Amino acid sequence: MLKHWWKALGALLVLYGIIYGLAMNVPKLDILNETIRNVFFHVPMWFTMTVLFVISVYYAIMYLAKNDLKYDIWSSQLIKTGLYFGCLGMLTGMLWARSTWGAFWSNDPKQVMTLLSMLIYFAYVVLRTSITDLEKRARISAVFNVIAFALMIPLIWILPRLTESLHPGTGGDNPAFGKMAPELSIVFRPVAIGWILMGLWIATLFIRTEIIKYKKQELL
Amino acid sequence: MKLPVFFSMLFMLLSQAITLSAQETAPKVQMAENFYGEGKIYIVIAVMTIIFVGLIIYMIRLERKIKQLEQKDFRN
């Protein structure tokens, strides 16, 4: 039971975000109004995706070092789970953008660059299905993973911040939402950690089923 | 990371929940104050809580099933 504590913590923190994030008094911001509460749900999707991708690239490197198929399974399933969270982040972001910026898509640097890096990761998934030899697939995937990661970090987390962007935390000035108010960030941080833990939990379920699948086919 | 850490984190969350519920500033900006005043938002919170807890229960059940499969030996 004790080794599951982090799953319980993740669920509790997300629950805290749902309950307190909706019930608390939020700063009165123009245009955003009550939608500022989305920050407890939309932004953690991206944090979770990124954390899962970071762990995935670690296992990709481990595979290249140790040549153990288990690392390939961990690495690939973490990417699949991360992409799920990325899709949720994209959909929620587009909905939020419609009400805040007036359009689902406005070719904002962060939108475009995030889409680009997600497409790179989708290519990873497609590439895997096209290789049947397990060793070959694992090796090519691991190398692709490292390259995708090296592109994703600047594309999502660095470049958009150096240009004008509708998203906060950038050179461009956002009239509604310059910097996160302290009363928001004090709630946002634990909730984001909760979502990350939830993402890890879901990823472990993916990994464990995949390992069972391999074992059943006597591949592992 | 043991239980004391877990409880101190929980305590931090609870204490901040209490201290954070008092702030008043500029009027003008339209907020869902009446909606909150009528207490209806709590229905939404309750609905979302039920759904989320339901999903968590589903995940726990799924994990138990996976564990059963893991303990099964396929090589026979």
Folded structure, characterized:
The complex is a heterodimer of chains A (220) and B (76). With 220 residues, chain A is an all-alpha fold. Helices cover 73% and strands 0% of the residues of chain A. Chain A has six helices and no strands. Chain A has helices at 5-23, 42-66, 69-100, 109-129, 134-162, 182-216. In chain A, helix 3 (69-100) packs parallel to helix 5. With 76 residues, chain B is mainly alpha-helical. Chain B has a domain at 30-71. The chains are: A mainly alpha (220), B mainly alpha (76). The A-B interface holds A 5-6, 9, 11-16, 18-20, 22-25, 27-30, 33-34, 183, 186-187, 190, 201-202, 205, 208-209, 211-212, 215-216, 218 and B 1, 3, 6, 9-10, 12-13, 16-17, 20-23, 25-26, 29-32, 41-42, 44-45, 48-49, 52-53, 56, 59, 62-63, 66, 69-70, 74-75.
Structural class of chain B: mainly alpha
**What is the overall number of helices of chain B?**
3
Q: How far is the first residue's CA from the last residue's CA of chain B?
A: 40 Å
The biggest beta sheet of chain B reads:
none
- In one word, what is the shape of chain B? elongated
Q: Helical content of chain B, roughly?
A: 55-70%
Helix content of chain A: over 70%
Most extensive interface, chain pair and sizes: A-B, 36 and 36 residues
Distance between the termini of chain A: 28 Å
The stretches of 5 or more residues of chain B where confidence is low (pLDDT under 50) are none
The structural class of chain A is mainly alpha
State which percent range the strand residues of chain B make up: under 5%
Oligomer: heterodimer
Q: What fraction of residues of chain A sit in β-strands?
A: under 5%
Q: Roughly what is the average pLDDT of chain B, rounded to an integer?
A: 74
Shape of chain A: globular
pLDDT below 50 for ≥5 consecutive residues: which ranges of chain A? 172-178
Defining traits:
heterodimer; A: 220 residues; mainly alpha; 73% helix; 0% strand; B: 76 residues; 3 helices; elongated
